[in-house]
């Protein structure tokens, strides 16, 4: 797909007409449009056109990309309200307290805005929403005013409960995108003054009408040379040729660096390249057809980024490794600087994760091979989870997972026997786990919908501690803890201290995309989950991964997998400032000591208490009870308890006495 002469779009007239009909809402129940198709098919470009068409109808368009937000209801709501404020040009998120807006308040703001303007909510890259999909479907969209039109764009059609529920099917317009026809390709090339029939047929045969590949091929000046080459995959060839044709070395270096970065801006490029990047140079980069603007900077299209990075790593492996190390250091220091300053540092941690792990971890968990998606288990897909477990027992087999040890350059393999292959599922009881909270069990699906993996991650809080104390796998570890640490875990269900990993299971250990997806899930949990514990099967593959990721091994053992083999529990604690110590340990394991040797030792970070939390802290230090504080501040005792829980978490303490002691010390500093 291409944009010619401003708004003339080739090959998408049917989709534009469908969108215009959708906006008219001649069928009021059709409030959701699902735009989907493979990478490079033109979803984001068409979504931009949809936004413009909606704006021409005087609609307020609230547009977000899943890559720009932390995947929690509160973060999404806050982001949406901020976007609405920019559209309205006024502050609408006035709250009666110092606490962030609740999801209910945010939805109320959107619904009130819908009475003044027609609203379109457009969500891009939906395949990366993960467990937030469940909340969006079961709460957000159901509670939004029916007049608000919604577009969900992603690589895959909405699955699971979206597809099984007749209600959702009736209110959804499906818009699959496919490659362009030969006639469309010919029209597009004619508009670019490519008229030679032989050239047109060659481009058609090579690109098959794939919009991104077509665009890059048509813009390559060496078409005559390429026509004589016999290449199976044209995109790597085109990107390689494109780099050769770039007349400005600075632009070529910026593209190479951008292909290593997750996303970029002028500052990050200058840091990684260790040379100034002028505004004019950066503008040239951002004007390239495969560069997109997102909330946190710019990024190359996924397919192009992969092609460029693979070409660079093959051509200049040492330079590529150097760029990755510079990126790692940049995001490491940015993450460290954010600890204690921001309530939510998930974006910084996510950036750092892109470069996380040694070569063995990167072999198994290479994000570029991740291509599947997670969904929360609920009643709509419960039977799918049962069938997955049944199929796993029927088809279990031995696996040999090859790897290369970079230290010795020797090849090896991890062996998982048929019996060990089923260890992950031995203590999985779906109904029991489902009762521990929404999102405890997730299914991993292929783009076609096949379930190929399952995870069970239990939040550690007052509602689940009895389960963890009395069930196989977890009981040995939790029963070994002192009472004061158990008391620390007994928090309200909405504020878990951390998570216990019951299982992370895949159907095929030789499918690298499954390892990449579950590895991404596991490492993200380690970095953002707080206190994370788990007792993986006692097999070399699992234990080696945990050791390589810096997990601490508890001396307590159990025999719950086969009644014979002693099995340890591994833990990682990244709550508050402990995240810095964990990241520092990982950097040392990765041989980055020279970059952090002058870094100061960990010190208690700045604790950003809100105004109301400061007032409560002042009264707490005066020795007041919850009831006295509530009376003094004209609040309920329940509200005071919630604020105290948040204060204890920020101070990393377990009780009032410890909080007062730390507040006295910290008042001399930065709290």
UniProtKB/TrEMBL annotation:
Secretion signal, residue range per the UniProt entry: none
InterPro entries: AAA_16, P-loop_NTPase, Sig_transdc_resp-reg_C-effctor, Tscrpt_reg_LuxR_C, WH-like_DNA-bd_sf
Positions of the HTH luxR-type domain: 602-667
Database matches in PANTHER family: DNA-BINDING TRANSCRIPTIONAL ACTIVATOR DEVR_DOSR (PTHR44688)
Name the record gives this protein: LuxR C-terminal-related transcriptional regulator
Superkingdom assignment: Bacteria
Origin species: Paenibacillus violae
Record key words, sorted: DNA-binding, Transcription, Transcription regulation
CDD domains for the chain: LuxR_C_like
KW Transcription (keyword) present: yes
SMART domains named among the record's database cross-references: HTH_LUXR
